[in-house]
Amino acid sequence: MSLKFAANLSHLWPELPFLERFVAAAAAGFEAVEVLFPYDIAAKEIQRALIANGQRLVLINAPPPNYTGGARGFAAQPEMVERFQYDMKRVFRYAEVLKVPFVHVMTGVAEGDAAKQTLIDNLKWASSEAPEGLTLTLEPLNAVAQPGYFLNDYALAAEVLAAVDAPNVGLQYDSYHAQMIHGDAVAVFDQYLPLIRHIQIGDSPDRGAPETGEVDFDGLFERIRAAEYAGWISGEYSPNGPSEESLGWMLR
């Protein structure tokens, strides 16, 4: 089966102004893109860029950045529940305008049982408030890239998802983080496949382009095809040079 690839415009073509990255991605053959934190740009401007380049926006992150200087993401912070709900309502409005199917909910820096329960409660609330057709995702992030981040293990993510038990909340798999956390990105994909709703790819240990590091991408793509995964696979990595020259993984 054919795999569907998207470009993460927060990482790729970093040398270009934001709206020009849509043009570059379209020229490289991408019909779908991700933008981690699009909130500095008016939704209508992004909408025009998507229409002009024949693309769809498949994922954004939430909550929006905390411009007061606090940590980015706080879904697992007990003292931030009111702020979480306030900001998520803004995210939902943004997602509706741009017809985004996935919103990655960031947990922030936290630890302990109270943080886990807060995350579960926040996701239950968010799943009930989310617009129709929108899926919320959890993504474990490794401790090297995100020190102190609460959701730092795939088993923990599975535990939280089981407790939330909502059809519109699922797992976001990232090969870079999976390799860094557990040492075998392919084994992580196999183990947690039933929970995976969205896939991102990058290599370890430096989050470089696929096939430049430790991840077995031949094995991973084989497993993705065997699973008949029909969703998007987004390149979320640092190109370390011209982005066009880092796309051999997609062309192959």
Write structural notes for this entry.
The chain is α/β, with parallel strands linked by helices and 252 residues long. The protein has one domain: TIM Barrel. 38% of the residues lie in helices and 15% in strands. The protein has helices spanning 18-27, 43-52, 81-98, 113-129, 154-164, 175-182, 185-192, 217-226, 248-251, and strands at 4-8, 32-34, 56-62, 102-105, 135-138, 169-174, 196-201, 232-235. The chain has an 8-stranded parallel beta barrel, surrounded by 5 helices. Helix 5 (154-164) links the parallel strand 5 (135-138) and strand 6 (169-174). It is globular. It starts with a strand and ends with a helix. The mean pLDDT is 95.
Short characterization:
By secondary structure, the protein is α/β, with parallel strands linked by helices. It contains nine helices and eight strands.
